[in-house]
Write a structure and sequence with these properties.
2 domains; six-stranded mixed beta sheet; alpha/beta; eight-stranded mixed beta sheet; binds adenosine-5'-diphosphate; Nucleotidyltransferase, domain 5; 38% helix
Length: 398
Amino acid sequence: MKILVINCGSSSLKYQLIDMENDSVLAKGLCERIGIDGSKLTQKSDEKGEYVIDQPMPNHDVAVSRVLSALQDATYGVIKSTDEISAVGHRVLHGGQKYSASVVVDDELKKFVKDSFDLGPLHMPANLIGIEACQAAMPNVPHVAVFDTAFHQTMPPKAYLYAIPREYYEKYGVRRYGFHGTSHSFVSKRAYEVGNLDPDNSKVIVCHLGNGASVSAVVNGKCVDTSMGLTPLEGLIMGTRSGDIDPAVVEFVANKEGLTLSEMLNVLNKKSGVYGMSGGISSDFRDLEAAMNEGNQLAKDTLEAFAYRVAKYIGAYTAAMNGVDGICFTAGLGENDKNMRKLIVSYLGYLGAEIDDEANAIRGKEVVISTPSSKVKLMVIPTNEELAIAQETLALIK
Ligand code: ADP
């Protein structure tokens, strides 16, 4: 059985066609610059190689039709007909308080997404267009919505309520939702096997460290807290997002610089994080490490601040769970950067956490990176959000 996974951003569409018999990726691709000059589709397949279509994609409808023709292309395609696609899994940013698990797309789901654009102004409209375009192109297969927020819906009120007037929660649903849920769910489940932990009696912290970054605390498979909030801006320092700051900074800087509220939010989302902190060196951690190695103090301070923030969250979540059995690192930085992992673990001596340098240097696979005598299992677990979405989709259509 083949499942197509669709992830629509405001001007992009990522996709993977996955063979569920062996969880292998038949083809994956990216449509870039949808609605902007210079649109491009790039598809990669181990068997058929790389295929690029440089043609205008004025909207997501056109992008979806390009994806389907690329998948069926006589030379580069991996299927003969869309009849081979059994279902489509759609990544949806926000499920609000309504959706705590994936659902088969129906009118109610589409109405919810349409009514919730303000929860994710960049992603939610694109998510809806992607769903409707795929439904129009493949009306006879089930479509499933998989939410970034769903895994975190098990958080108790003490973790998700903000200390602001209650009416904002009641009237507008202002609360912590959390994101990267598919990744936190996938990685915490793999941790039981990789770390030999008891799924029914374990406390796990997942550090999803990529361009966007978040931490979650998981007790017996259920999320009890996470660092992102109403939007993906709260919590850790990220590539270009500030994470936690004193909210009064917004008005203070806006007044000094003559910026509007939305311009300030743009600064916090797109010009802050390690990029802003380092004085604009880069949002990419590889560039920052290179700069640090050449003696750049700003880059060094920035990387230290990033690690320090992650370590503080690990401490907070250990307290929240009254202990921790496993700590997992995942996503671009978490999976690939042994120096950053080592720096973070250097704060965890009080937990009896010990890193094994040799294991920590292994790349690209699931591995325990703590020593046998470490009191906490430290693990690297590559995330696979597309496979997780495909598995959720399969579970719902069975
Ligand atoms: P997202 O999906 O949020 O865009 P990823 O999970 O793909 O992000 O992570 C991308 C980030 O991972 C890059 O910005 C880069 O900083 C970091 N990264 C990837 N490989 C390495 C590496 N070898 N060393 C350090 N950082 C890395």
